[in-house]
Amino acid sequence: MVAVSVDLKDALARCAGGDKAALRMIYDSECASMIGVAARIVKRRELAEEVVQEVFVKIWRNAHRYDPGLGPAKAWIYAIVRNQAINTLRSGRREDLVDEVPEDAGSAVEAYAAAERLPDGNALRRCLEGLEARRRTSLLMAYVDGFSHGEIAGRLGLPLGTVKAWIRRSLLALRECMG
User: Fold this and answer.
1) What percent of the chain has a predicted confidence (pLDDT) above 90?
2) Is residue 36 included in any domain, yes or no?
3) Separation of alpha carbons 81 and 61, rounded Å
4) Calpha distance 103→133 (Å, rounded)
5) How far apart are CA 28 and CA 73, in angstroms?
6) How confident is the model at residue 93 (pLDDT cuts 50, 70, 90)?
């Protein structure tokens, strides 16, 4: 596949004038890279795709605000991607993309398996085994699988505050046990 070079400055000017084909050109040229940038920030592919969708709406609505005198069009576009991804994280919307399932068995099994891989005499394993099973699972989902508190709450069907408290108390218990 041959990469098509797009004059983003011109495409933004055309978007500002209502040219939908210009927005499509930006999409074809930059979408994959934009998803990559967003994914590095939000850590989840499906959430990155949602971020980029919102970015294209912002580009369409705000193309008239792009000022070529302030910098390259590409920098303007990727600043929007970065800001939208950060705003998505801050808003806690990561939990909105979680399936509403009472318990995500796959994640719970992965987290549990991570603890099981520790050697039998390992102090961390002993301390983890001292935690109540659901609290241990939520802690491992956060630190092994990389899920946010909101995602864990969605996957386990628990209130967000409960998950936050469990993880905090579990960390304190681990610190005490390991100390």
Assistant:
1) 33
2) yes
3) 14
4) 13
5) 15
6) low
Instruction: Tell me the per-residue pLDDT of 24-74, one tens digit each, with 9 for 90 and over.
Output: 999 999 999 999 989 888 888 888 899 999 999 999 999 999 999 988 999
- Which residues form the domain of 44? 8-95
**CATH number of the domain that 55 lies in?**
1.10.1740.10
Q: Are residues 37 and 78 in the same domain?
A: yes
Quick one: 91 and 19 in the same domain?
A: yes
Q: Please, is 175 exposed, middle or buried when counting C-beta atoms within 10 Å of its C-beta (0-12, 13-18, 19+)? A: exposed
Within a domain: 1 = no
Within-domain flag for 88: yes
Q: Is 83 exposed, middle or buried (0-12, 13-18, 19+ CB in 10 A)?
A: middle
Look-up of token digits 């039998």? 120
pLDDT of residue 4: 58
| Nearest-angstrom CA–CA distance, 17 and 2 | 28
Q: Which amino acid, 142? A: A
In a shared domain, residues 62 and 21: yes
Identify whether the C-beta of residue 13 lies closer than 8 Å to the C-beta of residue 63. Answer: yes
pTM, whole model, 2 decimals?
0.52
Residue 2: inside a domain, yes or no?
no
Domain count, the chain: 2
Residue 113, pLDDT score: 64
Under a CB-based contact definition with an 8 Å cutoff, are residues 124 and 136 in contact? no
